[in-house]
Write a structure and sequence with these properties.
Ubiquitin-like (UB roll), 5-stranded mixed beta sheet, globular, alpha+beta
Length: about 100
Amino acid sequence: MGDASGGSIEVYVPYPLRGLTNGIGTVEIRAADLGQAIAELNRRFPGLAYRILDDQGRLRRFVNAFVNDEPVSHLSPNDVPLRTGDVVTILPSVAGG
């Protein structure tokens, strides 16, 4: 199953963003890296990437991302490889602003 499109991964969508996913909390997608995963999420749920990425394609300052509970927010999404079975969690900070 090692094709270039990446393996099947699971993305956990937190409650604050589920208005954009029709209430769906877990999305299964195929992606080789976090950037591809976010692009695929945005293809399925237009507007979602805007809430996660800034104009430079980096995670917004108030968004935390984890792959299998490992923090990856400090990395560019395209530099975060994903493997079959990985679980991606995207958590927007709930601090006021």
